[in-house]
Amino acid sequence: MERREFQAESKKLLDMVINSIYSQREVFLRELISNASDAIDKLYYRALTDDNLTFDKDSYFIKLDPNKDTRTLTITDTGIGMTKEEMESNLGIIAKSGSHQFKEENEIKDGHDIIGQFGVGFYAAFMVAEKVTVISRSVDSEEAYKWESTGPEGYTIEPAEKAEVGTKIILKIKENEEEENYDEFLEEYRLKQIVKKYSDFIRYPIKMDVTESKLKEGTEDEYEDVITEETLNTMIPIWKKNKSELTDEDYENFYREKHYGFDKPLKHIHLSVDGAVRYDAILYIPESAPYNYYTKEYEKGLELYSNGVLIMEKSPELLPDYFGFVKGLVDSEDLSLNISREMLQHDRQLRTIAKNINKRIKQQLKQVLNNDREAYERFYQSFGQQLKFGVYSDFGQHKEVLQDLLLFYSSKEKKLVTLDEYVERMPEEQKYIYYAQGDSVDRVDKLPQTELVKDKGYEILYFTDEIDEFAIRMLMSYKEKEFRNVSSGDLGIEQDEKEKEEEKETEKEHEELFTKMKELLGDKVTAVRASKRLKSHPVVLTADGDISIEMEKIINSMPDDQQIKADKVLEINVDHEIMNALEQAKEQGDEHLKLYTNLLYNQALLIEGLPIEDPVAFTNDICKVML
Ligand SMILES: Nc1ncnc2c1ncn2[C@@H]1O[C@H](COP(=O)(O)OP(=O)(O)OP(=O)(O)O)[C@@H](O)[C@H]1O
């Protein structure tokens, strides 16, 4: 028996396969099973043109046989086999793919897509095996041959005995090393796991004899090992089935089987696209957020398959951040994979798929919003913040996609409404879309700032999430209607001549008092003014300029210590009885007016949910007034 050397380049390549191409050792099994499946597919193609051959799908299988005593793992297939020459060229020259050549020579169709293309996968066996033996008999030969190698030193080929057509690969599993455990590749449970993970949708059954300890018949506490042959893979992926054959329950079961979430998914999307890039996808919109969703630990992404073989557990490129909650998978035969199948060579196909998927998710959400509001609200409860963050992020790039998916609580409807519903209801003379912010609907409801707008009969959107105002600032307007904070200086509410006249008079009347009050407050406020928006409450703090008080609160609570200040204005309700008290205080001297001004300013801070600078002084001030 003559030992043959691998070609010089092959030696280097083999070293690379063993040591650096694959990041996980377990993929050796994926590679050998894919080869076995390719070999059966080749028989199928041969039968199409060869009258002497019939292909009965049910008689083909792949079998795994772990044996701890001999430390071997045998993978047997009933495929096309290899002649001596094929062994020479396909296993003797690394990076020579018989499968690739086969694809070139045969017209590949019917979804029997050959997986192999690079001619390196087989050698992944050396990551776990110290010796690899291949015994194969080709469909074209009466004789069988044995190929054997212990790695870079070379290989031998000699005649062998094998009754049936097909290939048997015997891996002599390496001994454990200090930090490496190879025993796991002889364990039934582990092999099952690896098959499920990577090869669950291989078209042919992957079988293994599984040992189970069972109660011995006729006894109560005696157990015996029972061996049964199990098929480890599901074979037909749900996404390759016809949609009409599948029920909601099937999709829900698949969601659970895949551990996409513990909840019941809100909706699923099943796509079979036959366009420029062909792919199938099953996507789920979950109903509730995983516990770590809003943390750094959460990783978005879809599973990526190529021809039913898992390539990536989480491909982040397939989902934009704002739809990062979507779960599911994509299977495409059109991906250009790199040699380890762990990455893609071009992301063009992936980008096309991602773009389509993005569109479909939006459509689906819109549909739920329009047809099943209750379900959408449940979804929004979990992921509304994410959508709003999506509007805000990347300098508002995605606002067009997302604006119609937003909901806010409405002062009028007392429930969540869309921006479209708001704008549709706006009276003609209403200039802006009004909003007010606070920690909760109850709190916003009681805000004095909302009085005038409500009095006018206009609807107000309540912003109770920190992100709300930031997102809306990015949006700027919706259907050409600008957003306006109810606390802002200009509310765009038209006044008639008489009202304007009255306002001027009031300003003049109290000018001296307000100037004095502003002096007493110093730079705590930029102005003290007669309020146009208050009806029953005595005071309120509002903001001039771009930064609202709510934004000041949020930004200042962030860890990066960017201290910013809103231009606060103390507004006084001149129709309130408090005005008399203030005018009297002014007459009584600065001391008195200062006491009242501070009290009112601190009250306004409290209403806004802002901290009082000196609570002790504030309570002392109250006592002074009481005594
Ligand atoms: N079980 C098998 N039965 C028949 N032929 C096989 C078998 N395993 C490997 N071969 C032959 O050996 C060749 C090399 O296999 P290898 O796994 O290295 O590459 P590949 O499958 O062609 O490509 P890839 O690197 O993309 O997996 C295959 O193309 C095929 O012709």
Automatic annotation (TrEMBL):
CC annotations in GO: cytoplasm
Source organism superkingdom: Bacteria
InterPro entries per record: HATPase_C_sf (IPR036890), Heat_shock_protein_90_CS (IPR019805), HSP90_C (IPR037196), Hsp90_fam (IPR001404), Hsp90_N (IPR020575), Ribosomal_Su5_D2-typ_SF (IPR020568)
Binding site for ATP: 31, 35, 77, 82, 90, 96-98, 117-122, 167, 341
Matching PROSITE patterns: HSP90 (PS00298)
Coarse class of the protein's main subcellular location: cytoplasm
UniProt keyword list: ATP-binding, Chaperone, Cytoplasm, Nucleotide-binding, Stress response
Single GO MF annotation: ATP-dependent protein folding chaperone
Task of the protein: Molecular chaperone. Has ATPase activity.
Subunit (UniProt): Homodimer.
HAMAP family, per the entry: HSP90
Full protein name: Chaperone protein HtpG
Organism: Oceanobacillus indicireducens
Encoding gene (name): htpG
